[in-house]
Amino acid sequence: MSVIPVPSASSLGELLDRARAAIEARRYADADALASALLDQQSDCAEAWLLRGLAAEGIGDYDSAETYLARAAERIFNTGIAVRLASCRWRLGRLDAALNCIEHARASGALDAELSLVHATVLHGMGRFAEARQAAEEGLRLAPDSALLAARLGATLMRLGLTDEARVQFVRAAKLSPALAHCGSIRVDREAWAALIKAAAEIETQAHIVHEAAAQSQAKYVVMVACDSVYLNRYGAAFLRSFARNAGPRARLHLHVVDPDDAFSRVVDGVIRELRLPGLRVTIEYTPDDVAEHLNARRTYYSCARFLQLPRWLRVDALPVVLLDMDAVVEQPLDALAALADGCDVAVLKREPPDSPWLDIVANHFVITPSAAAVRFAERVAGYIALRSTRSQLRWHLDQIALDSVLRMNELYGEPLRVVAIPPELQQRVWHIGNFYRYRLEDERFRRYARPLAG
Fold first, then answer.
1. pLDDT (tens digit per residue) in 376-420
2. Could you tell me if 319 and 392 are in contact, meaning their C-beta atoms sit under 8 angstroms apart?
3. Bridge-partner residues for 252, per DSSP?
């Protein structure tokens, strides 16, 4: 993203207009530069602080966004600033501060659907689900056609155990907004449970082994990463080189690539020649024909492929499996992460604070054992995804929805499953970049590993 030069003689009004236009166009670096130039001339301009906050929020830098929005709120406090400031504090897990901000706005007499939405979201994150329901219902009275409020109410009803009522709200949200079409994928009723068990029994995965080194006797678990060629080319060198250096000798790597491109064989050759990973397995597959021509459906399939493949390889290897994302850097040995399998069937990364069925289980860390109960769970997650692996139903977040929904159905209808949360200190062994946070590609933690592979 380019940063435009700021003329020193620009009027304050012109700078504001240009900064607003940059925010509208999502040119966040430009907006920040313009607002900063304005503040150099008038440091108490509330709107300039607001624009800096919106620019930081736009790139996911919520710490900076909170700082700038708080400075705006010190100068002029209104519902719009309260909503944005509370939202940033919620994202940072500062729920008490977020709630104080909302209550301040409500005490001034503000009654606004967007304020009700963030109020319900914060209360939900605090585990105050009955109050969150009231806030969401209040918002829907003000804005009956709000897809976001319908989705928020559905998520809270799900937490309250009112799954049928939640389903109604999720379907409503999906119909109101294409951006929330994934809500229509959420089902935890007994009919859905029976369907996914049937689908799990019928799955035939199409993975072709293109390289497999002899497994080492010291390998005690498998680390599986799956991606498409775009992710492999962008993040693969850093992930694979950091894995080779830091994961430890007990980890065996399984690299699964969907829709390999013309450069794929050279990348694999580089991995083999430079990194010499013991026990390396490389497999490939291609997206289904009805999905291949549709970009968004194809991207969702890429994110779900590892869960479709997982049951097969759990049975083949009979070892614990650690699933990670390719857009990450391994910074410490992974043995302690894999060791979670010693005391459970499944270890999941739970979002804090809780938010919704599509975000509460974060799929970039996942540990599973080859126990009978865990294999059946993996099969059911695969079945849940397989039922929705068509062009019209592959919606973003499907992998996380599947994990959350099958865990919930397993509690309602299934067998006991030992589930633990992955603790923060083990999450830190892998630094997750996240494709949304592309600015992190300039971080030294990524750059030190990111040179092209020898192939």
1. 999 999 999 999 999 889 999 999 999 999 999 999 998 889 999
2. no
3. 222
Bridge-partner residues for 228, per DSSP?
258
Helices 46-58 & 12-24 angle (0-180, nearest 10):
20
The Cα angle at residue 205 between residues 199 and 209, in degrees rounded to 5: 165
SS3 of residue 4 by DSSP:
coil
- C-alpha closest to that of 172 among 142, 149, 141: 149
Q: Residue 215: which residues within 8 A CB-CB, separation 6 or more?
A: 252, 278, 279, 317
Distance separating alpha carbons of residues 101 and 84, to the nearest angstrom: 10
Q: Where are the alpha helices (DSSP H) in 271-421?
A: 289-292, 295-317, 335-338, 372-386, 398-413
pLDDT tens for residues 410-441? 999 988 899 999 999 999 999 999 866 777 88
SS3 at position 142: helix
CA 243 to chain centre: 21
